[in-house]
Structure formats: structure tokens, C-alpha cells
Design goal:
The chain has 152 residues and is an alpha+beta fold. The protein has a single domain, classed as Aminopeptidase, CATH 3.40.630. The chain is built from four helices and five strands. β2 and β3 form a beta hairpin. The longest helix is centred in the last third of the chain and has 15 residues.
Length: 152
């Protein structure tokens, strides 16, 4: 499957079943316990509240292949919005077929169209397959800032 045979569009409430399965798979990839009920509730809330933008990748038959989810942020220094590409997941059976590239390109186009200064993301240090996609698309590893977090 080439990138051109992957269709990427903004998800809508009717996509909740497909998004639930994909989001659950994403969480399991990051070593969380499977939780279809929780995944459904979380994705349903995002769609209802419209507090994120979710793009769904499908093949020509309409089968869900993957998704990406963006959250709005602001850069005080740039005095512009930016988007946090928080989630990117491709179903195991659809990997290495251009799905991640297609999702990333859609996210980049959306950010540009929205007037944002850019996109940011984080990934696991050992997620080499994802890192290769980011590098292929021109993303740069931040060497200027250390990012910290704390659980509360």
C-alpha cells in the first residue's frame, strides 16, 4: 500500500468504534492494560468536547488503519499557537505501508492551514521505527531544551 492509497480525514463521532480499537492498541503499545471501555469513553469525550483534532487513516475499502490526535497549545515566545501531536498509532497489520507518513503529512498540513507555528511531539527513546518516520519527514530532535514532567 502506498501513501497515495491511504485516505486520511478528520474523525467524526461515527468513527468511534474504529477509534476505540485503535486507541486501545496505542495504549497497549505503551504497556498499558487493555481497556476498551475506558478507550471508548476517552475518545468519545474528545470527539464530543472537540478539545482535540483526530485524523483517521483508512484504506480504499474504508478499513481503519491508524490515527493521530493533536491537542492545541500556545507558544508564548512565538506568540502563536502550536499543536501537540500527542498520539500516533498504526495497526500492526498496516505498518510499513505509508500509513504513518500519510497521517503525519495530514497533521502538518492541518497545522499550516490553522496558522500554527508548528507541531511538537515526544516518543519513547527506543521507538526507532517512529523516529525514522519523523526524520524522513524533516522533523528535528530538540537539542536546545530539556523537557521535564511530573505526575500529580
Amino acid at each position: 500500500m502506498s501513501t497515495s492509497s491511504v485516505l486520511v480525514r478528520q474523525a467524526r463521532p461515527a468513527d468511534l468504534d474504529a477509534l476505540t480499537v485503535l486507541f486501545n492498541g496505542y495504549r497497549v503499545f505503551y504497556e498499558q492494560e487493555p481497556n476498551l471501555e475506558g478507550a471508548r469513553a476517552f475518545m468519545e469525550a474528545r470527539l464530543q468536547k472537540e478539545d482535540s483534532v483526530i485524523f483517521l487513516a483508512e484504506n480504499a475499502e474504508g478499513d481503519a488503519l491508524g490515527f493521530t490526535q493533536l491537542y492545541p497549545l500556545f507558544s508564548s515566545v512565538r506568540m502563536r499557537s502550536i499543536w501537540l501531536l500527542n498520539d500516533l498509532y498504526v495497526d500492526q497489520a498496516a505498518r510499513r505501508q505509508g500509513v504513518a507518513h500519510a497521517l503525519m503529512l495530514k497533521a502538518q498540513a492541518f497545522a499550516a492551514e490553522s496558522g500554527a507555528a508548528g507541531l511538537e511531539l515526544a516518543t519513547a527513546k527506543d521507538n526507532d521505527s517512529a523516529k525514522s518516520v519523523y526524520h524522513d519527514l524533516g522533523w528535528k530532535l530538540d537539542t536546545e531544551f530539556d523537557h521535564y514532567s511530573i505526575s500529580v
